[in-house]
Amino acid sequence: MINSTSSSDRVLRPDGVVHHTKTPSPQGPEADRFAPEHTAALKSALANQPEIRPEVVARARLLAADPSYPSPAILRQVGRVILNSPDPDEQAD
Question: The whole model's pTM is what?
Answer without folding.
Answer: 0.41
